[in-house]
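SEQUENCE-TO-STRUCTURE ENTRY
===========================

Subject: a protein chain together with a token-level encoding of how that chain folds.

Sequence line: the amino acid chain in single-letter code, read from start to end.

Question of interest: how does this chain fold, as expressed in backbone structure tokens?
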Amino acid sequence: MRFLDQIALFTPFDALATALIFCAWVVLGWLIESSRLSRPSVTILMIEYRRDWMREMITRQPRIFDAAILSSLRQGTNFLASASMIALGGLLALIGNAERLLGVAEDLTLGGTPTMVVEIKLMATGIFLLYAFLKFVWSNRLFGYCAVLMAAVPNEPDDLRTLPRAMQAAEVNIRAAFNFNRGLRALYFSLGSLAWLLGPLALICGTAAVSYMIWSREFASHSRRILMVPPQSAP
């Protein structure tokens, strides 16, 4: 009964703001990963570049450059996976420390707010962080599979196995990138969800800010305009 009493302290506005941030997360992810849109995202545009990379790798000797690129991609996933795990551990420690939670509440001028209310608000952030961690770990694993496939591509471009294996490596690389981007979006939304500590209106503002940032980088950034420029043919 005490738990139900605590839940009753949340208003319909809180429920609306919470539903909004999770809906924005899902909808943005669908839009970014959809290949049916007339205006493709940076993530979709990069797919063909990744396939071109593997086609070029076939004739590149030695393939040290390709190995270095893949290694840098794996380092990025390792770093963000570690950062997500550390952030999640810190958040769980904060949730388990009632006195620290009360101190945070006072700092945010939320005096009088029950501890469980603040804990539940922080759990929303924890959901995003946990999702990000799992996606970064899986992305790192997929980049590892890609490395094995790249190593299995024969050195002879005329070998019948060369192009099919290179394309297999490309598709696994694409899936790894998709999971990496999903983890990155979850990190962005985890930061936006912290605004809930200030109230539902702040959460809505945080959701709008994060959503615009992600949308602009995928659909209206300078990087996207560069990717859209067709390659110049030789004179």
